[in-house]
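Section 3.1: Structural characterization of target chains.
Under the original work plan, the team committed to producing a structural model for every single-chain target entering the pipeline before any wet-lab resources were allocated. The record below documents one such target. The sequence was received from the expression subgroup and is listed exactly as submitted; it comprises 93 residues.
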Amino acid sequence: MKGGPFHGAQVRGNLWDVRFTISLDETLVARANKRLISLRDTHAIEVVQDDDSSELFSVVAMIVILLHNRRKRDEDEEERSKRLKRAFDDDHV
């Protein structure tokens, strides 16, 4: 991260699977973990540092990552649909 009170914070782990940690100066700030329950995914974020700014930062980081993952998944689905449509159109010309 660049700028602000969390300048230099690092995210380590697997962002796609939403299993990662956020650290600042080698101090763990938060960890996120995706859990598959039934047909829906849930995400848990544990804020390790006991202050409001760490909690807010962790929640915002989680939201940004989830939105990024959703956008990427939507783009992949759109591309898959286009390929299927092209393949169908090619077969029925």
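The beta strands are 10-14, 19-24, 27-37, 40-47.
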